[in-house]
Input
Amino acid sequence: MGRLPVRRAARVILLDPGDRVLLMRYDDGPPNGRHWSTPGGGLNAGEAYRAAAARELAEETGWNDVALLGEVQRRSFDMEYAGQVVRQRERLYLARIDQARREIRGVEAMHASDGIAAWRWWTLAELDSTAEVVWPSGLAGLIRKHMHQASRPGQPAVRRAAGPAERGRPPGSVSWENAGCGGEAAR
Output
């Protein structure tokens, strides 16, 4: 059996002042199905992961004023994308905004073309108790683990200097090799 094509992707775990996280809903057919996911998507040719995460967030929200705080996870898994099964290698970044439940406006056409059916802000308690499918699984726990990186308004942002996250695997992250996510997918 041959190797699967690799798709590189970057996503943003975006928190508001109430520690709510922004998720997008996709109503895909099988095998991905209906699911909620953090904003993000595939890298363009020659694009760095961090740049792709910022670009995707701006495209999906219309906001160009959100700074990424740091990389919090790497994962790799098989998923369906554009009619074929691919091996997705994905990096997740943390960011915070200072406006509660900020509204998304002016990107409806982009949402329609990208298959985004809805968006909403979720509390961690809602993530813990939902019967909805959320990617990545365990998102609330991942947020709790890295919340110290996301300063609240009025506090200085915690920014990591270029180090392990930029050169290799960040501490506590999922490696490419053992990041099997049980069929989870991401855009």
Summary: Strands lie at 6-15, 21-27, 34-37, 40-42, 68-81, 84-96, 116-122, 134-135. Residues 49-61 form the longest helix (13 residues). Confidence is low (pLDDT under 50) at residues 153-187.
